[in-house]
């Protein structure tokens, strides 16, 4: 789940074997499609035209757009941000969350939620002292998986921030307000508990809440049930790209007129034995147990994997026309987005960076932005061996001149809060909007020995003052899911 489709530091999850055909050799993965193969010759009876065109497309470099299309001007189709809500290891307040990022503080600690003493990774960005008082009733709070508790609190706080509390919502057309909050892994603790009950006690002891609290759509559903929002409602699950996919789809609902307002973002709570153990099995996590706060080090030559985190980040996305009509406080503007697939491998990024660079280009086209206008890139940068450099290479394909660009990773704050998986894009979007509003970029900490190929300003170790013109935020997930969204200061 983490990195550009990211991360096993070995480069492989499945064991590789080689088979021979009359035409040549092909690399296989336990019967699955090969990552790469020699082109089969025409003499084998196979028509090579599709393979040839695919090969040609792989080798094409992404050219920067000669001239960007104009930005959207229709107030009905311009999408602005009018509220934000967060649940993080630094608490549930957006300003506090960003202040601690700017300070470079670390919330990474040893895991005490379960016995991890035999695990090769024993630390995470674990949320402690979480309170849902005033946001979830006590009975449901005791039953819910943390994934949905985080979603409900972040979602309701975002609505409050947008001045869309319960009394105000009563007077609004709720069929024009939708919810699109995704999760990469859903209610993993609820799922794990259900399986344990089945194995230890039999099916009759499985909780009736096992299925509802495990499935990934439940965050959007529960938030709508609690608030009465009846507009477009579903969940997207694209691993660590989830939240950006939700923003992209939510904005399109607004632009099509399906909704005036969308509550969108991501939520995740995978710090349990199943989640941590699973990522260890993928060889995805850092194992610096002796110094957890220094474990994640994006673009550093000594990086060894990401740090798992949890939380939720939610935005209120609204048509400009509707926001002006109700006198909303506008925090920034969503310009557009792009989504692509590497079509390459379950966990590894493409070495040519085509999936990511084409995704950035699609985002700029959708946003009406030229590459020269972008001066801040919030990178995926999960501190993985393959992913970090592949992302930088893709950025360089699109942005020929990077001298004015600053890039950091709010996932690079793995060292500070951990990689939020399906929630990561939501937390990053909040960081982008705060960077736009404050004029300060948080640092990429633990950068002691920068990779020589990284020649873009990564805001190393100390925050920097920077007036953001256009920010793009990258999120990539297992399966080759790529997503990029663009934000900018609001200008009437």
Key features of this structure:
492 residues; globular; disordered N terminus; Peroxisomal Thiolase, Chain A, domain 1; transferase; fatty acid biosynthesis; 2 domains; two-stranded antiparallel ribbon; nine-stranded mixed beta sheet; fatty acid metabolism; alpha+beta; chloroplast
In brief:
With about 500 residues, this protein is of the alpha+beta class. The chain has 13 helices and 15 strands.
Overview of this structure, please?
The chain has 13 helices and 15 strands. The protein is of the alpha+beta class and 492 residues long. It folds into 2 domains: 81-325, Peroxisomal Thiolase, Chain A, domain 1; 338-488, Thiolase/Chalcone synthase (Peroxisomal Thiolase, Chain A, domain 1), CATH 3.40.47. Helix 4 crosses helix 7 (218-227) and helix 11 (354-367) crosses helix 12. It catalyses: a fatty acyl-[ACP] + malonyl-[ACP] + H(+) = a 3-oxoacyl-[ACP] + holo-[ACP] + CO2. Residues 76-489 form the Ketosynthase family 3 (KS3) domain.
Strands, helices and their partners?
Elements: E1 16-20, E2 25-29, H1 49-59, E3 79-87, H2 94-103, E4 109-110, E5 123-124, H3 138-143, H4 146-161, H5 166-170, E6 177-182, H6 188-201, H7 218-227, H8 242-256, E7 261-268, H9 273-281, E8 311-319, H10 320-325, E9 332-341, H11 354-367, E10 376-378, H12 387-398, E11 406-408, H13 424-438, E12 440-441, E13 464-465, E14 471-477, E15 481-488
Parallel strand pairs: 6-7, 10-11, 10-14
Antiparallel strand pairs: 1-2, 3-8, 3-9, 4-5, 7-8, 9-15, 12-13, 14-15
């Amino acid at each position: 789940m983490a990195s550009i489709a990211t991360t096993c530091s070995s480069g492989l999850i499945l064991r590789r074997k080689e088979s021979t055909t009359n035409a040549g050799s092909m690399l296989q993965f336990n019967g699955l499609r090969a990552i790469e193969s020699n082109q089969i010759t025409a003499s084998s009876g196979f028509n090579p035209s599709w393979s040839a065109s695919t090969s040609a497309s792989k080798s094409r470099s992404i050219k920067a757009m000669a001239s960007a299309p104009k930005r959207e001007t229709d107030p009905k189709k311009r999408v602005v941000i009018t509220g934000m809500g967060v649940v993080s290891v630094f608490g549930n307040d957006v300003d506090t969350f960003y202040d601690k990022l700017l300070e470079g503080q670390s919330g990474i600690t040893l895991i005490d939620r379960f016995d991890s003493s035999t695990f090769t990774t024993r630390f995470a960005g674990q949320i402690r002292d979480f309170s849902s008082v005033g946001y979830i009733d006590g009975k449901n709070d005791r039953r819910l998986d943390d994934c949905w508790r985080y979603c409900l609190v972040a979602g309701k706080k975002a609505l409050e921030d947008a001045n869309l509390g319960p009394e105000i919502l009563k007077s609004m057309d709720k069929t024009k307000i939708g919810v699109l909050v995704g999760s990469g892994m859903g209610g993993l603790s609820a799922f794990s508990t259900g399986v344990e009950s089945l194995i230890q006690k039999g099916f009759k002891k499985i909780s009736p809440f096992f299925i509802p609290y495990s499935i990934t759509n439940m965050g959007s559903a529960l938030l709508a049930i609690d608030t009465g929002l009846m507009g477009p409602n579903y969940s997207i699950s694209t691993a660590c790209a989830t939240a950006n996919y939700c923003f992209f789809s939510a904005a399109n609902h607004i632009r099509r007129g399906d909704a005036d307002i969308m509550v969108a973002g991501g939520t995740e709570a995978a710090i349990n034995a199943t989640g941590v153990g699973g990522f260890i099995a993928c060889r995805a996590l850092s194992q610096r147990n002796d110094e957890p706060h220094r474990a994640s080090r994006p673009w550093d030559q000594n990086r060894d994997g990401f740090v798992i985190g949890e939380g939720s980040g939610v935005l209120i996305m609204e048509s400009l026309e509707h926001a002006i009509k109700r006198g909303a406080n506008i925090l920034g503007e969503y310009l557009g987005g792009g989504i692509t697939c590497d079509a390459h491998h379950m966990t590894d990024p493409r070495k040519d960076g085509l999936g990511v660079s084409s995704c950035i280009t699609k985002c700029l086209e959708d946003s009406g932005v030229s590459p020269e206008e972008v001066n801040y890139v919030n990178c995926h940068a999960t501190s993985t061996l393959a992913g970090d450099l592949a992302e930088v290479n893709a950025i360089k394909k699109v942005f020929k001149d990077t001298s004015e660009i600053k890039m950091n990773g709010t996932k690079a704050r793995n060292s500070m809060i951990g990689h939020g998986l399906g929630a990561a894009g939501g937390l990053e979007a909040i960081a982008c909007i705060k960077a736009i509003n404050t004029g300060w970029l948080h640092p990429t900490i633990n950068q002691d020995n920068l990779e020589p190929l990284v020649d873009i300003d990564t805001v190393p170790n100390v925050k920097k003052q920077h007036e953001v013109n256009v920010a793009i935020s990258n999120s990539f997930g297992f399966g080759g899911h790529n997503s990029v969204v663009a934000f900018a200061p609001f200008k009437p």
